[in-house]
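Reopening: structure tokens for the adenosine-5'-diphosphate complex, inputs below.
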Amino acid sequence: MLKATNVSKSYPSPRGTLDVLAGVTLSLDRGDAASIMGPSGSGKSTLLYVLGALEPPSAGEVTLDGANPYTLGERELAAFRNRQVGFVFQDHFLLPQCTVLENVLAPTLVDSASRDSKPSPRERAEWLIEQVGLTARRDHRPSELSGGERQRAAVARALIRQPRLLLCDEPTGNLDRESADAVAALILDLHARERAILIVVTHSVALADRFPARYTLADRRLVPRP
Ligand code: ADP
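Re-run output (same inputs, fresh job):
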């Protein structure tokens, strides 16, 4: 279970403190999927970073299955992120010199534990690449792929470690309508099978409405959307 309790986040700015989040509370169970909308600059990315162990809250608490990542030391925090959290950003951030397969495998290279896992990282990578429809592109580099294909590779990479939490920050924001629909369908479909906790930030009402839990970030708080 992902729990955010009274989470606030402020950044120092030349004109004083910038309060981005104030008293955000959220609770999602394994298998839950939520969308977050809100105007640009309202703090949606900040909230994902705080939930995803990338940015500590200024106040309040975040726990994933009871563990608060921000109590960990730097190395343990990095390991927590790598194992428990998958991120998909608006930009794919694939390594340009690596193939699709190598990019999907990259998160498994940082520790030896995953080498002995079943299925093996290689088997899981190939399965995920098949699920995202890129088997024929497995040995291609990102520059040889369309925008939609790159984003599908990024989704496969985010899921390689079977994260408990999948966070997507405007994953279809750079795509044309058709590719956007395909990537959105893929994320929802894979989520249904993987049973992680999925949170997607989006400007698309059509995409946001496909989620069972819907929120808007407004006035620094998360409010349910009908
Ligand atoms: P959104 O994703 O809704 O567009 P963001 O979370 O990116 O909003 O940003 C919310 C506000 O916080 C913005 O005013 C932004 O400039 C500010 N902000 C984001 N990250 C930082 C940072 N690291 N330092 C200072 N201000 C930041």
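The first helix runs from residue 44 to 51. The mean pLDDT is 95. Marking as resolved unless the reporter disagrees.
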